[in-house]
Amino acid sequence: MNPTAFRFLNRLCIGFLAALLIAGPLDAARADDGAVVTDSAAAGAIRTVIESQFDAFLADDGARAFSFASPDLQTQFGSPDVFMSMVRTGYAPVYRPQDVEFLDLLEAPGGLVQQVHVIGADGTAVIAHYLMEQQPDGSWRIGGCMLTQAPDLGV
Q1: Cα(114)–Cα(79) distance, integer angstroms
Q2: Structure pTM?
């Protein structure tokens, strides 16, 4: 990657993370107003979007993976190539998961947050917090993703 593209990508990632931090920690959603969502239609549609993006990542189909991002994220990244570069470098567990387990779907400011336990190719366990945004046509798109270390579930 050339230095200009790297600086752009770095600023974009920092800006994205700052926006998530300003919006408030996604983990706090449950404690504040983050009731678990029981709408099975929404939960099923959201799961399908996230699973479809995982499938696109595994197939290295950048255009398809990018299509599941919200319009705002698509504008921020500009192209599937820039998006995929960011995912490969900053979201390796999501890019090449060994195992995926869907956890709670929570209400949060700005949309719903789907929590997904992911074990990456290197064995690292994370919780991916997917901010999901419902579009005017009723479909769901991914508005952001934040990875946190998964709790140790050792016995």
Answers
A1: 25
A2: 0.77
